[in-house]
């Protein structure tokens, strides 16, 4: 296993030490493994938290900051955080205006966030929840009832983060979150598997001449395997299922071309150059985009494509100021 | 070869199409393979250009923007751009205040930038040059007389970019560039080789249980190989040679923990968490840092460490506003 780690058991604790050491805009609760904004919360602001298994960095910890998340809970690699972590984060960030939980649709995450929301509610904190289930690759999966929650999560955190920052109340923020979730679709592919530190070997075998289409973010099976194709063909295999699933015409669309962690930027830009003409030919009005590593699967090589059908207000919120360690904003 | 490309011959052209498609703040001269700022240049501003072989993204193309570069020339993968590309960029960005060339110390780059500077000078453009040669791993190498130019380049482009933006003249900008170059040191290591698309196979073989210490940014040989160690030991092997080479005490220091392209962010943060205490124990005052992929080697797994001994003015310039597609700023 070729990884820059001390031991598989210490990966999360050690990585959180590094986050704290490098980024003065956040503080880390090491006991509960929660990353918070370092600056005091604004009075009356709805708080937004997310979290999930680690191994998808910069999501979610790198998305904590002004204009996005108030806190992120880090689970073990590819494993949901516990309800206790989520409860600690929820009660800590609440200042009376309520808390939005952003949850990717995986069975463990959904169950644990639900328990945390109930406990927080018992403690007098108003909680709303949005579940992201945007992966068009599979209807159900090993780890989900319904679609997996993937790339739309990143775009949603930006948009609703801006809404909370400008003072919208919990009902409005939650309704907006649901709208973004409903309007987002993703599709991914992998050239290689990934290696969970505790396992010490790749999650699945993928022969040297094969790629996996429809992969999720945990090395779970995709739709099918086939011989590695050129970037143009791969772009079509990402775009077509998304456009077949939802009508993305007639409104401004935000596009993310995301790397899975082991693919260099030169290839991600190249892929975006193949994806954009396909979208334009299909009549999609690409108003904004992100190209880079935002929701990853450890060292997996590959990429995913996410589209969110927006409106003028969502574009305005997309353009609002943001300051997090983990995000670059493209045009 | 597992890459998201169309064909090895088209990697650079296709990737530049993607850069242009994704980032409205730059424009691309496809014939000369130069990335420029899209907005008109400020009158009287010293222009700053860099460039080099492709495969190190986001450097240099992703560093074009307000507060950093005016233009970047993209060579073939790991191959210097031609003097003609550099001349085109130099004459295009000059507005009478002169042009600074930022050159990494590789024989081809140095020779070609020198020829371009002579031709530009003949055409009436005042050119100053800074050569970065900061890699403490080797004294000479396969591709250089003297040390290789690596990570300090990124930090230098930020600092002198800010100086040019605030209106400093060419002599001042060039002197500052030389000072940053003189005060920067780097050391890198690799867990894997990288694959140049045109070669189709890894540049060197590195057994599953071995790592290479003192690697450059082209898959060239390092200092030595040894069994893969834990992050703590690797951190020491990066920090010690740098501190042995130069006195980094007594002034604020800017630190970059850089990924080589195939290493995920979770491991880079973990490494920074190991590096920082070693620096602090040695009396180094770490004033600012960057953690992420800034100067990469295609899909190589590994990392490098760069330190620049700064002063209050360099820190002020470091903190100045910047807007590029390829950069995240940590604290």
Q: What is the strand arrangement across the widest sheet of chain A?
A: 1-2-5-3-6-7
Task: Output the radius of gyration of chain A.
Answer: 19 Å
Order of helices and strands of chain A: HEEEEEHEHEHHEEEHEHEEHE
CATH-derived topology of the largest domain in chain A: Rossmann fold
Averaged pLDDT of chain A: 95
- Assigned CATH class of the largest domain in chain A: Alpha Beta
* Strand coverage percent of chain A: 15-25%
CATH superfamily of the largest domain in chain A: Dihydroxyacetone kinase, domain 1
Overall geometric form of chain A: globular
User: Main β-sheet of chain A: number of strands, strand sense, barrel status?
Assistant: 6 strands, mixed
Kindly report how far apart the N and C termini of chain A lie: 37 Å
The helix content of chain A, as a percent range, equals 25-40%
The greatest interface between two protein chains, and residues involved on each side, is: A-B, 64 and 64 residues
Secondary structure tally: strands of chain A? 14
